[in-house]
Design goal:
The protein has 258 residues and is of the alpha/beta class. It folds into 2 domains: 117 residues, CBS-domain (Roll); 125 residues, Roll (CBS-domain), CATH 3.10.580.10. 37% of the residues lie in helices and 23% in strands. The chain has a 3-stranded mixed beta sheet. The radius of gyration is 19 Å and the shape is flat. The relative contact order is 0.15.
Amino acid sequence: MSDELFIRDVMSRPITISKSAVITEALDKMLDEGIDPLIVLNNNTVVGTVSRKSVAEKLGTRRNSAISPNSIHVANTVEEDFTTVYPDQDIEILIPLLQAYKLVVVYDDDHRLVGKVTAQDLLKRYRPAVPLAEVMEKACTIDTEERVVHLRRRMIDDNILRFIVTDRDQVVGIVTETDVAVSMRNFREVVDDKHQDHRIRNLLVKDIMSTPVMSMDAGSSLDEVIDLMIAKNISTLPITAGDRLAGIITRESLIRAL
């Protein structure tokens, strides 16, 4: 990596939300901006982050079933999942930081928020110099007919952020914490409280998955894979070998390979 590259060369505009905002506003902003997580401010001071995962967990909790999503504030989902750097520091310090955190907050010398760095930002300027096969992860799969309550349990118990959805061993979609958060928000807004427990148990993976899903062949170069992920702003890309699912490439696996 060039010694002439600094954090200011890769950082992007900070996208923030107030601690007092509601989580539906936070979710909409993450979707509109294509970012996860958001930086949470309280009186212009960074106090943490809010992620799609934390929103999904909050909306999916049974004890919150009687509470409107528009009544739950970001303050109830704030995480301290970030670290800080300065613009004139060498870019190399970002690699271990982004392997540990989803977001790096950039301050100026007066401790004012001036930027952020995510895996997406770094991968635009610096990439692993290894074959695709060395970066590929095993794909966790789930059937279209599986119940969403079982999906959520697997996500929580095994700390799995995304599943490739299959139907008769064919890839038909993908389901992530984003899909869970959006579906839970929509579900809470339209289903009466007294019917939620019954209805949510009948919700299937095929009802909330994102489809169609993009994929690339195992013979592709890693640069081709990264180019597509950046162009489409996607965090996970299934890799196929013929008709078989060979694995997935994620932003996390790419950062680990740096």
